[in-house]
Amino acid sequence: MFDDGSPIYRQIAERIRSEVLSGAIAPDEQVMSTTQYAAFYRINPATAAKAFACLVDEGILYKRRGVGMFVRPQAPAALRERRRRRFFTEVVDPVLAEARAIGIPPEEIVEWIRRSSGTASAAEEPNGTGDVRAGRPGGQQETVRDRGNGR
Questions:
Q1: Among 97, 58, 64, which residue's Cα sits nearest to residue 81?
Q2: How many domains would you assign to the chain?
Q3: Listed residues 73, 100, 124: the one ending a domain
Q4: Signed CA dihedral, 7, 9, 14, 19: sign only
Q5: Is there a domain that residue 92 lies in?
Q6: What are phi and psi of 141, to 5 degrees?
Q7: DSSP annotation of 6
Q8: 53 has a pLDDT exceeding 80
Q9: pTM for this structure?
Q10: Residues 87, 60 share a domain
Q11: Domain for residue 149, yes or no?
């Protein structure tokens, strides 16, 4: 479980974030105690406690004195929003910068995404007929007939 090179407490926190985001751990559901977590994964209890403290500081978990740690009701939405922001800044922004550098307009990127995700209608297809064509960067098109026999 702990093998990506980052500190173990960060890996624990990320795993819990992922479980909350996926619904594996529901809002207001109790999570394992630091002692249980440490025993289960054979790690130092202080390491587990540090991960849980980070999640409390982020507003993902909250403590009920004498009972344990629980997932905040708003945690899934907060995590989803945080991941969306990170997706746009870490993935989309660099794609747009590279596209700008090589002269691809944003509209062409949107068109490519629609075709690739299967959401383009026949009118949005590059040739406007709904024919299945393989898109090439720069707007060049290759017909299916051209691919197979070199014509």
A1: 58
A2: 2
A3: 73
A4: positive
A5: yes
A6: -125, 150
A7: S
A8: yes
A9: 0.67
A10: no
A11: no
Instruction: Note whether 46 and 61 are same-domain residues.
Output: yes
| Domain presence at residue 59 | yes
Higher-pLDDT residue of 124, 144: 124
Question: DSSP letters along 88-108, please?
Answer: IIIIIHHHHHHHHHHT--HHH
What is the reported pLDDT for 119? 74
Q: Residue 27 above 60 pLDDT?
A: yes
Which pLDDT value is given to residue 148? Answer: 45
Measure the CA–CA gap between 117 and 11, rounded to whole angstroms. Answer: 32
61 and 44 within one domain = yes
pLDDT at 123: 52
Phi and psi torsions of 71, nearest 5°: -80, 130
User: What digits encode the pLDDT tens for the residues 116-134?
Assistant: 988 765 455 555 544 433 4
- Single out the residue of 64, 58, 50 nearest to residue 10, CA to CA: 50
**What average pLDDT score do residues 16-24 get?**
96
Using alpha carbons, select from 55, 81, 80, 83 the residue that is nearest to residue 69: 55
Residue 147 lies in a domain: no
Same domain, residue pair 97 and 136: yes
